[in-house]
Please model this.
Amino acid sequence: MPGVCSFFKCHSVAIFIISCILLLVIIIVGSLCNCYEKKEIYDAKICNSELYCKKILTNKEYVCCDETVNVLSNERFAECKNLKRIDFKGDILYIDSSAFNGCENVEEINFYGKVQYYSDGAFQKLAKLKRIYFKDLDIIYAKTFSNLTNLKSITIEKNLREVEDDAFLNCDMLKNFNANEINVHLTDESKRAAVVSQNIYVLKSWTFSFCDSIEKVVIYGNVIAIEPHCFSACKGLKEIVYCGSFEKFKEVYPLYAIELLSDCLIKTTDNPQGVNVKDSIKNR
Model:
């Protein structure tokens, strides 16, 4: 009997030890899974590696990068073909021209911090991009969004001071460009409006050219010059609202350029009902 008891006692101890080991393994594996899931969405260091994109993001439709992601370097999201939305929580110091190479299905990007600088062509590979939001952006460089034919909405919440030539050239689906930091949420895609920032003083040539879906543009009196062809071939443009007098608007926008907007109604502070350009030309 003592031998039998000793056997069962040893056996019980062995079972106990094995159970503890199994429990420990389960806890470790669970912790790793939780950590892995957290890294999958938020860990900048993992996001920074080629392994991250190819192993983790390959089948993901959404990724949110936390405040530690500050540089979008060469092919940062290369070949992430299933991604549809990307959010950046922190300030972005630099976006490389090839950062979004292969992101052929991205439809929405949100920058919730300040974007300091981006290379030429940084957004040109985003053929299906529909919406882009910037919390803080100083300048839109020449041809930044040109030829993005699916782009419908651009919102810059504050500090936009310059839009260079051809910025939205051939964005024929663009319905909403909102850079008004006071009423940033006033417009939506259904209103088909462009609201220009109060910090912008010059609207460059071809800025909104061939943006066929924009029907209304709101321009503040701070603008001192609207260069020729700024609104050329905007087939859908029906109304320009200028926060100043009509006479001042004619000084800001060359008369021959205004004549190109013959089917457009121009509303000014002293004439809120609007001046039809066609009639104005007839009565000149």
